[in-house]
Amino acid sequence: MAALLLGTGLLYLWDLAKTGWGNDFYAMAVQAGTWSWKAWFFGSLDPGNVVTVDKPPFSLWVMGLSGRLFGFSSWSLLVPDALAGVASVGLLYLAVRRLSGPGAGLLAGAGLALTPVAALMFRYDNPDSFLVLLLVAGGYCVVRALEHASTKWLVLAGVAVGFGFLDKMLQAFLVLPAFVLAYAVAAPTSPGRRIGQLAAAAGALLVSAGWWIVAVALWPVADRPYISGSTDDTVLELAFGYNGLGRIFGEGRGGGGRTFTPPAGMELPTGGRGFGGGFGGQAGLTRLFGGEFGGEASWLLPAAVIGLVAGLWFTRRAPRTDRTRAALLLWGGWLVVSALVFSYMSGIIHPYYTVALAPGIAATLAIAARELWRGRANFAARAVLAVLLAVTAVWAFLLLSRTPDWQPWVRYALLVTGAAAVAGLLFGADRGRRLGPVVAVLGLCGALLGTSAFTLATAAIAHSGGTPSSGPAVGGGRAPRGFGAEEADSAVIDLLKGTTTKWAAAQSGAMQAAGLALASGRPVLAIGGFSGSDPAPTLEQFRQYVAGGEIRYYVAGGRGGFGGGRGTAGAIQAWVEQNFAPLTVDGVTVYDLAESVV
């Protein structure tokens, strides 16, 4: 375990600062939280608390506290995410170990650590790293509850999932069917007590998820920021609208509930419908294996599904409280439900969402592989284990073939080692005292070499923007830049550094305004929130800010919302253009709001 955690720590922490600010959008909110406790509590994009990010603030709380303790920097921003990854691997090891032994625990932990999308997100400032940690913590608590029908541990599982909601809303609830099923089936107590305990856990979930929602709802609207992404300035509408049913059923809405299309010059992957579909490709069972999704987390997915089916079949006559079947229901249920939702949701979905699949895949495969290895005296168990290895090696070979010029020896090496392990299993070489360990090592190489190589390649390069992706460097030696990864102009930054107003500048859309705030170290008002389409601030509020001398510059060239400059952001831009003279600062149009021309 020590070696596993040390290796994971090196993988996730080594040269971490090269990623810079990662996703500028969230980094801007963390920066604001280091200036204002109110902005920290709400997850505001600026210390003036005009508008929030379009997610709840749990991850921002952790990163913001780190920034306050150690000073706001790339390192203090990203280290909490990396440590969340190490903790996730450790907790997964402990959870699987309790029901399936240390060998399965080590394999599960290694499987999670060596998933490419895990190396991507645990070195990034998106909310997903803390979501995974909280959900794995919930799984660990369910395992502890299963051992002795413990109400305390089941309630703690509800608390963990509740705080997962405060990190990424309804996505945290995807594990609930598996948690409930595993406990309802396998807990060693009466049916009535199981129902009562699950009800208590549900209450704990509601309290831990709902306290912040209630606090925001009770806070005077005039004294708090606008809830970005909502249509009525409430957290519940955000949770069940833009970040909930809208993601599943494909309403294709941006902040403020408006339908949007990509702005000019912004290229998106083809496929799907609406803005979200462009990122996620066509919905269906093949989504997780095709395009960008395949290389993120699907390396061990086919084998995990086969192992789940085989494990449930071999334990079909076991007692109700059988530990192996309980573990398969828990982690396999996590895998199946999350995979189906990700496969068929037709709203906004990014390939990196699949990091939430990684613990379920790793744990399910580890448990199944351990049981099949233990039962390999039975030819059927050996044959299924051989199928797992063969499928994993072939699928890894096909995934690596998508980047044929990158380290081609890896895909051939894993194919050879995998084939040798399969042959050893089928011909019984694994049962020998000397050859057994050799077959095991060959099998591990065949199963993990591909995903390990892709993971190392992912960790070796810097990523930026709102849509980071796993895999080796392209072109100039760095990862592709996703939307929101634009670099601020140095001349404009120098201009903002000389300001003393409440906001150094304002710009439409946080994806560009964030770059200005981070580079200048001065507060910038992101008009309209994430995409510029939230009605915050209103035109009247903006005019009051300007009249009070609170904003010095308006920087043109923001996204004005994916609504194409309509709505509040468009009205503000039109008012600025009518009342202030434009300046050209190294090719960028800037309006000095201290010098009206009217």
Automatic annotation (TrEMBL):
The UniProt record lists the keyword NAD: no
Origin superkingdom: Bacteria
Glycosyltransferase RgtA/B/C/D-like domain sequence ranges: 54-210
Annotated keywords: Cell membrane, Glycosyltransferase, Membrane, Transferase, Transmembrane, Transmembrane helix
Subcellular location: Cell membrane
Any Pfam family hit: PMT_2
Chief place where the protein resides: membrane
Ranges in coiled-coil conformation: none
Presence of the UniProt keyword Transmembrane helix in the record: yes
GO biological process, one term: lipopolysaccharide biosynthetic process
Domain Putative mannosyltransferase YkcA/B-like C-terminal, chain residue ranges per copy: 499-579
Bilayer disposition of the protein: Multi-pass membrane protein
Gene Ontology terms for molecular function: pentosyltransferase activity
InterPro entries attached to this UniProt entry: LipidA_mod_glycosyltrf_83, RgtA/B/C-like, YkcA/B-like_C
Name of the protein in its database record: Glycosyl transferase
This protein's GO CC annotations: plasma membrane
